Amino acid sequence: MGFLSTISAAYSIATSENYDIDWEKQETRDAAKAHWDAVRTKANDALPLAALRLTAEQKTLLDELLKDSNGLFPENPTDHLLAELPKAIPPTSLNRIVGSVIDDCLKNHKHDDAQAAKTPVIQKHWCDDVSIRRASLVVVPAFTKYLRSFAAMHDTEPVWSAPLDTVCIHIQRKELVYLGIVSQEIPPLEVLELLEGVDQALTEYIGLLSEVTIKENFITVYQLLSEMVDSGCAVTTDTSVLRGLVPVPSLVNRVIENVSGIGMGTEKRPDVNTSSTPWRAQGIRHTNNEFFVDIVEKIDAIVNSNGSVVSYDVSGDIGCKSRLSGMPDLLLALNRPEVMDDVAFHPCVRINKWENEGVIGFVPPDGQFKLASFHVATDASPRTLPIYVHATTTRQELAHTIELSAEVGQCGGRPIEKVQVRVPLPSQAYNIRVQCKAGTYTVSNGRTSQVEWSMKTLKAGDRSSRLVIQYFVRQSAVTNAAAGNSSPQAVSSDQDMAQEAFVDFEVAGYSMSSIKVDSLKLMRESYKLFKGVRYITKAGSFQVRF
Amino acid sequence: MMNSTIQTNIARLQIMKAKVLAALRKGENYELKTELNSEYKERRKEAVRRVIANMTVGKDVSSLFTDVLKNMHTDDLEIKKLIYLYLINYAKTQPDLVILAINTFVKDAEDTNPLIRALAIRTMGCLHVQEVLDYLCDPLHKCLKDTNPYVRKTAVMCVAKVYDLSVDVAEDNGFVESVREALSDSNSMVVSNAVSALVEMNDMSRHHDVWRLEANTVGKLLTAINECIEWGQIAILETLVDYTPRDEKEAENICERLLPRLQHANGSVVLTTVRLLLKYEKHVHRADLLAQFSKKMVPPLITLLSSDPEIQYVALRNINIILQRHPKLLSKEIRVFFCRYNDPIYVKYEKLDVLVRICSERNTEPLLNELKEYAKEVDMDFVSRAVQAISRLAIRYETAAENAIKVLLELLETRANHIVQSCMVALQDILRRYPRRFDSLVDGLCEYVDDVNEPEARAALIWILGEYSESVSNISNILTSFLESFLEEEDSGVQLALINAAVKFFLKSPQQGQTLVLKALQTATEKCANPDVRDRAYIYWRLLSADPNAARAVALAEKPAIELENVDLSPQLLEELVNELGCVSSVLQKPARLFVYSLAEKAGVPRDSGISAMGLDDADSVAAGAGDAAGSSSAGIDASNEGEPELLISF
User: Fold this and answer.
1) How far apart are CA B621 and CA A146, in angstroms?
2) Burial of A427 (0-12, 13-18, 19+ CB in 10 A)
3) pTM for this one?
């Protein structure tokens, strides 16, 4: 449907508002005209490129409608308009995902410049010409406008019903926004997972992603995107498969090419793997056969000011690194499989075997991969915290003080590493002073200030880890906030206090759920296998309320 | 004089700049042309890269078409891919020249490397040029029968592209039939691609008769699904949505074979499986199986909530729908839905909705404490929703009312402007729901007379004062002071509330209220411009003067109990949305036929103009779409508050 549906939609709203109005009166006519003009400028504004395509005839036609008071709002304005105007372009059905755009809006947003141009870095389309033009000329500009309409990028809803019968689905990863434009009813999760897969694949191929690195490697990016999606259907996002199809740009190659202008060519001709184990190629050889398992558990928790745990959740990943020759078949047994109450496996795992015997049987992909992710059953998790962070806040008129202290909780007597406590301060805070007895701190000043307190290690019995933050709250801001509040004593309310701290930490060698690897057996291959297992407990979203 | 010289100079400069730029650009293409024809392989390769680089930033490199084509005969796969990319881009504008490339394509389609065969066949399909079609048929026939499954699966997708260009070519050459046969292919990836291609063609065809999912195919697909990668699984699961099982046995069988899908790492696989289970569940009657389904559905849904916020959002919107079908499903998991400070606001709103929905009588207390925390956050909209949630809990569970009131009074004490407004409205609802239970607190509310500055909140406070006039010590003064600013009041709701309060006060204590009610009615009838307010005042006046007892019966009537506003979707819409679970429609909470053009046409529904209007109204477009559910909650409460419904009923 062309842009005119946009205008006609606003148009029909106008009629319903002005239902039953006497058109003979000049003032109502003027009002209607003003309204109509507003609607039209709004439409032009929203779709500048579309507006340019309004032909002179169409314009006069619309104006004719305006001038004639009786015809201004005919009984069925939408139908009327649609009948008058050229039939819209039919939507394409073949191409479910019209395009994917990688956008660098976040970067611009950092400068607080809402109007900064957010232009797509790369667009890739999987559809016919008409849809490409519709997508890149109309939908993408409209989407950028949509993004700009939010004060905080963080808060843009990921699914947006865009003009021209499309739906824009996007994710934000670091500085980049990945946008998928969809022209059909399709599960948004599919698109979100695909975009997530694109992000992961690009990160694996390119490393640190930014506008610059993407532009530098756009040839790789294009090749990847055309392998990942064929005519709008996701084909694969598995990087082990992709590596067989698109060569990884190696640094050495690039340096040589750039310096001498002579490329080494692709030393290994990529080949496609079509075996029954699409994630593993035939004939892999390693001199040392090694297999490493990392069990990483994350605690998501919210702790209240009185120390009580409001919400508590432990989930984990089993990550593996495989350097095995041939076609190994592995059997991984855990000590307490029943503790894992929702397990999602890598496609290589035989689910039936897990269901029946509680062991994980699989032919591993080569290299690093995530074997499984799980959630620890609520009744099986210990509900203890490895770290306790206490906070006391005091307030004297406009001066606020926060005292933080951190202590080791239950974590098998191991030291806690990489402790980081982040305290976002209210936007009106100024003159921030910090006293720190252990570790280091930084104060960052953005739109809102934030104090970050880090300690390399925190040992049990360590009582000296304290941090005191003092700051003042701007008077003007407070009076503004309390506008209409006549009682003068209410100069400062809870709203101006810092309310939360976010805690990050890592405990090596400890697992919250006490899940352990019982055994790892190798079958089908006869070489000796070197095994390694690590356990790590980390903070997921760990939040302490004041 | 000076100015004009400067201006001419500037104009000259600009012309020169444009010329130089044009020359440069032309120069670059010229340079590329020589490079593309270089005798050194590496220089040609670099040139191709630069051409593509220019193409992607929107520079016109179409003039290099023939030169680029010359480089097509190469063993270098990367160069081949890049040139194919170039061809796809410019094929539409230069269809005649594309014919020059055909030979290479046909040759590539017979290459020994399956990757190159697949690449050739895929690119030919993507060119979307009629002229290529004739040359495509032979290679496509061969590729559909290729020994390599990677080539076969690419060829299958290519058939859909051919079908898009020309239905006749696709039908007459038996391509469509080949795709149907590919459903029995030994390789699961070919099967899943065949399914995708058939669905696409079905959508494109006029009568949607290209393919129908038959019972014997379902078995094959369910076998293939175990070996498919995630995207293939999604394709197969989605086709199963349209299948209606023949009998209970079959439905049970399908569901049982679907259950392992719930353990997939891909959220979309999980959600589509849930969608299928909810759909097939109607055909299953065995209680133990149904219980098993519910039990298995919960953990994966919970896990979705620890993914990225975007996925969480989609999951929450869907959970909201699932809960209307299975209200008890997640009642034990309430803590998972507690909001985190750094959740995006759209996730917080959804969580709040789900929280109120799944809260049972047992866990009102922790939830109320949690809501109190939310009410202290910075985002005003979120705060008011949190406060509203408090009142909804109180209205729903009698046992929670006392606690809720306690929380609201604590919040009022913060005296933060926006909190006071929301709390007042919330208190009104609770007092209305439990008349005569919380008389004692009303007097305390008078403290906040000066703090309520939103019309809705002011109307709420006035309503409370009128209703409980006997428990307020200096009621007369307060109402009088409100009355003084009667005419400055912008909102007629407040004016109506004030008249009602004055009348109630008078009926309860005629001595004290007489002057007040007279003044109120006089101001309203003589000076007020709003006809509604005037009419209401006239009616009261006549009623009071004609028959005070009748007036009493009207104004002080026993009010119908306030009910929790209906936040549920209508059963019919719910049915539709459950069927479309996990799709865009479930996120927008609008059935697909209202915003997918092709479906709208099929269903004969007039195009829903509202959706297109969203293009204009960027900021709250999704909110508008979502408004059906979220917005109705506030609308529901409003309807019961504004303008004294008991009076409307009596007349």
Assistant:
1) 9
2) middle
3) 0.71
Note the ipTM here. Answer: 0.79
Instruction: Provide the strand spans (E) within B418-497.
Output: none
Put simply, whether B481 touches A (Cβ < 8 Å) is no
Q: Is the Cβ of B633 closer than 8 Å to some Cβ of chain A?
A: no
Query: Chain A contact for B95, CB < 8 A?
Result: no
The per-residue b/e assignment along A392-410, b for 16 or more CB within 10 angstroms, e otherwise, is ebeeeebebebebbbbbee
- Which among B300, B595, B611 has the least Cβ separation from residue A342? B300
Strands of the sheet containing A329-334, edge to edge, are A359-362, A329-334, A517-523
- Quick one: tokens of A272? 């496609």
Do residues A270 and A246 make contact, with C-beta atoms less than 8 angstroms apart? yes
- Distance CA(B497)–CA(B464), nearest Å, equals 10
Closest residue in B to A89 (Cα–Cα): B597
**B234 interaction partners in chain A (CB closer than 8 Å):** 187, 190, 234
B344: nearest CA partner in chain A? A155
Inspect the interface and report whether the beta carbons of A190 and B78 lie closer than 8 Å: no
Q: How far is CA A460 from CA A300, A411, A415, A422, A507, in A?
A: 22, 9, 7, 21, 12
Separation CA B583–CA B592 (nearest Å) = 9
List chain A pLDDT tens, one digit each, 546 residues.
Answer: 111 111 112 222 222 222 233 344 555 555 555 544 554 444 433 332 222 333 444 445 444 444 443 444 444 443 444 343 333 333 333 334 444 444 333 333 333 333 344 567 777 777 666 666 777 777 777 887 787 777 777 788 888 887 777 788 888 877 788 888 887 777 888 888 888 888 888 888 888 877 778 777 877 888 888 888 877 778 888 877 787 778 777 654 555 445 444 444 444 444 555 556 677 877 788 888 899 999 999 888 888 887 788 888 888 889 999 888 888 889 999 888 888 877 888 878 888 788 888 889 998 888 888 888 888 877 766 678 888 888 888 888 778 888 888 888 887 778 888 888 988 888 778 888 888 878 888 888 776 788 888 888 888 777 778 888 888 887 654 444 444 444 444 444 555 677 788 899 998 888 888 888 888 888 888 888 888 899 998 888 888 888
Q: Are the Cβ atoms of B378 and A167 closer than 8 angstroms?
A: no
- Alpha-carbon gap, residue B628 to B226, rounded angstroms: 39
Distance from the Cα of residue B272 to its chain's centroid: 16
| Residue recorded with tokens 């400890």 | A510
Contact criterion met (CB below 8 Å) for A364 and A322: yes
- Which chain A residue shows the shortest CA-CA distance from B122? A230
Report H helices in A172-262. Answer: 188-206, 211-216, 218-228, 239-245, 251-260
Q: Which residues of chain B are within 8 Å of residue A219 when distances are taken between CB atoms?
A: 49, 52-53, 78, 82
The DSSP bridge partners found for residue A537 are A297, A507
DSSP B110: T
**Candidates B229, B417, B597; nearest CB to A236:** B229
When scoring B584, B601, B617 by the number of chain A Cβ atoms within 10 A, the one with the most, hence best to mutate, is B584
Closest CA–CA distance from residue A356 to any residue of chain B (Å): 12
- For the B330-434 domain, the top CATH level (class) is mainly alpha
Contacts of A199 in chain B (CB under 8 A): none
**Any idea of the CA torsion for B68, B72, B78, B83, to the nearest 10 degrees?**
40
